[in-house]
Amino acid sequence: MLEVKAIDTYRGSAHILNGVSLEVGSEEVVCLVGRNGAGKTTTIESIMGFLPVSGGDIVFNGESIARLPPHERARRGIGFSPEDCGVFPELSVDENLMIGRWLGEEIVRKRGELRRDPQDQAFAVFPEVRSLLARQGLHLSGGQRKMVAVARAMMLSPTLLLLDEAFEGLAPVVVNRFTEAVLKIKTLGVSILMAESHVAAAARIGDRLYAIDRGEIIFHGPPQAALSDERVVRALRG
Amino acid sequence: MEILIVQILNSIFQAASLFLLAAGLSLIYGVMRIVNLAHGNFYAFGAYVSAWTVGAAVALAASRGINLGVAGQLVLLPLGALAVAALGAIVEPTLLRPLYRRPEEYILLITFGLLMVLEDVIRLVFGGTPLTAGSIMDAMGSIPIGGLLYPAYNLVVVGVGVVAAIGLWLFVYRTRFGVILRATSQDRRMAAALGLNVGRVYIQAFAIGCFLAGLGGAVVVPAQAAVLGMGVDALVQAFVVIVIGGLGSLEGALVGALIVSAVRTAGVQFFAEIELAVLYLIAVAVLLWRPTGLFGRA
């Protein structure tokens, strides 16, 4: 579904990603773990199109998307929930979701999936969001913002969801709720690429795991193998 | 009493045009974070195009023995606003967009340059002679208010201002495109990640802002002539409006326009020598009390 092929990405003059390659298969949860500053967010933002890649390629469903602007990538079925959630603070939750739903309905129509309602999918993942519809983005708690961000991305009817630090800053009980949500999203036929600092949480839900350090992939394999890999443990401890 | 009513109407008449101008400036800033210094001459360009169109149409119709009538002339007035909107839709992607990744000073410089260029373009195209669409004012006549006569056209402008204020509010807060505009203004990266073509939204927002400036210019030409330099004067007043009301806020543009027009109208009557000084003192007081303006957000 998604193939990231040896991409190089710069932030200004700083060379952040150095030949990063990874793959996400159909209906698969893949975790990208690494400590802060390792290159996780840069990888996600390169896939979403916020940062230009200077080398390599990004292929989504057989099409090279490396030169497409972010809105075209979204239209091809890539949903995104950023680290800071990106909830529009002065819009109500309903308006936040509305924007995703407009495009989601268009995408569903184009795919000919007449029975698949983006709104039903989003609320199936986080039914709690229904009770927040009238509230302004500004007045949501950290956990609520994360839920709205994921529900909004699901409104797009994505086939691939990019989650950047979905568990960061959440209370342990809420982390469990998010773990359930990620597994639910998977059952809806959506692939997930998660950038995550907490390797234990990633190991619980990931089908496969990549570890990144200083802009290079240093491990690729089953999550349990990562926990016993010396290089991964050392890199995550810094 | 009649004098008070006429002065209030005069104040609202001025506020209507000033609101359109300031609302356009605020809309562009709110969505794109651009302080468009060329806005004053977009206003002037709208005034000139409308005055010229009405004048040319009336002359052409008269040469063929046709009377355009009030409605025929009023319908032509918004053409100036449409011309300015079209100009804005060309200026944003060609002159402004290449500079978005550079420091803000570049945008200020290019829009200031555009202000100067437009002044010369207006001089070149329309000449130095003032233009007016006074035929509309003459055709509409006056209505009695107590023992005084008041131009009927001014009431039309007041109506346009009220409709524009309500219409803009509904457009921004009750329509799909309004949600898109507000979302883009708050986080353009996230808007793009949700599939919105931010470049297209920017062209549309800039064109709408320019349309409002052009409409502000178009509605005044039946009452006041379009003259060289009117754009710079209007820009200065619009900045006072948004300093008071808050840059990026439509409510601020409305309240600011009402305050500025009320002070100017009262100033002409009671303190003509220091009218502008009073206006700027109010702006300074608001800046000291609320640096983001009455309705602005930090």
Question: How does this structure look, described?
Answer:
The complex is a heterodimer of chains A (238) and B (298). With 238 residues, chain A is of the alpha/beta class. Chain A has nine helices and ten strands. In chain A, the strands form two sheets. A six-stranded mixed beta sheet of chain A has the order 6-7-8-3-9-10, with helices on both faces. A four-stranded antiparallel beta sheet of chain A has the order 2-1-4-5, with helices on one face. In chain A, a hairpin with a 2-residue loop joins β4 and β5. In chain A, α3 runs parallel beside α5 and α4 runs antiparallel to α5. Chain A starts with a strand and ends with a helix. The model of chain A has no long low-confidence stretch (mean pLDDT 91). Chain B has 298 residues and is mainly alpha-helical. Chain B has one domain. In chain B, α2 packs across α4. Chain B has 13 helices and two strands, in the order ααααααββααααααα. The longest helix of chain B has 31 residues. Classes of the chains: A alpha/beta (238), B mainly alpha (298).
Q: Per DSSP, what share of the residues of chain A sits in E-state strands of 2 or more residues?
A: 25-35%
Tertiary shape of chain B? globular
What number is the mean pLDDT of chain A?
91
Largest pleated sheet of chain B? 2 strands, antiparallel
Question: What percent strand of chain B?
Answer: under 5%
CA radius of gyration of chain B = 19 Å
Question: Which two protein chains have the largest interface (Cβ within 8 Å of the partner's Cβ), and how many residues from each?
Answer: A-B, 24 and 18 residues
Overall 3D form of chain A:
globular
Estimated helix fraction of chain B: over 70%
- Strand adjacency order, main sheet of chain A: 6-7-8-3-9-10
How do the strands line up in the largest sheet of chain B?
1-2
How many strands, what sense, and barrel or not for the largest sheet of chain A?
6 strands, mixed
Number of strands of chain B: 2
Structural class of chain A: alpha/beta
